[in-house]
Give the backbone structure.
Amino acid sequence: MGVFAEVARPAILTAGRSDRLRRTAERVPATRRVVHRFVAGETVTAALDAVACLRASGRLVSIDHLGEDVTDADTADTNTEIYLALLDALAARGDAPEATDTARPLEVSLKLSALGQALPRDGEKIALENAHTICERARRTGALVTVDAEDHTTTDSTLSVVRDLRAEFGWVGVALQAYLRRTYGDCVQFAVGGARVRLCKGAYDEPAALAFRHRDDITDSYLRCLKVLMAGDGYPMVASHDPAIIAAAAGIAAETHREVHDFEYQMLYGIRDAEQRRLAAAGNQVRVYVPFGTQWYGYFLRRIAERPANAKFFLRALTERRE
Ligand code: FDA
């Protein structure tokens, strides 16, 4: 591994959990300029504007209200209310579903830790109730819901909540992280009966005992997992910007006799926009994950940690401010 992966990446991800650094970063105007590359804005209206542009170019969307690691029930309730307002606003804009059950154009992505999962008493139950409320509203709106994957301490709880939600809302998707050694087994379990699975590499700093840490090992694990998903009866969502994975996905789909509407590509807002457009123009389903809100700090630092060029760009923006 290089110096960036070994030293800078874990340090940036640790900084992503610091309240003190968060407060400092939020005060610096230069940070905000860089943040806007990855975050659609702070309000529902800003998110809907970004969604309109993406939809106009034939892309599907998944909208994420930023926030995580909530430590009080009131904030978990507020986050739930924001999702409900977002879904109502999507319904009011009339971007009605016209596609298949699995590939409806509108989706919201949730982090259970934003809905109370980490609360000391009944956290998982509270997160389940909040997610259930959001799923009910999504069903009325015709939107999908996918549950994000957070650090490994939450995986069992998150998969348990997803199983409960799926008993009533079979279309609820789940994100699985290919860097976790357990994920191959989770893919085997989840690649059933139309289940929507978003396979990503994983964005947290995880110990080697639980996760692959080398780039090539992570890519190998990703492709092994993707083969299971593509060969199974679920609906694979290929969440990656990696050219090697995108090229391999098309081949695996062909081998497993999947047509372009039997799976989708997914990328993050602001990352490889031209590639997103190219894939969509070629007739593929491409969904863009659109984060919005004021709690952008953790998400933003994970994007900075993914690429040395981003870290340099960010540091340059900070230095320019002082000159
Ligand atoms: P990789 O990091 O190897 O990047 C491949 C190429 O993509 C780079 O060379 C560069 O060109 C481009 N690229 C990647 N990241 C970039 C960045 N930040 N800025 C600019 N260019 C970049 N993770 C998680 O732990 N839990 C989750 O729930 C999710 N959810 C999720 C949803 C969706 C739709 C996507 C696309 C990703 C996630 N992730 C996630 C993040 C994921 O785990 C992973 O950290 C990033 O996607 C980066 O990995 P890649 O597969 O893109 O490959």
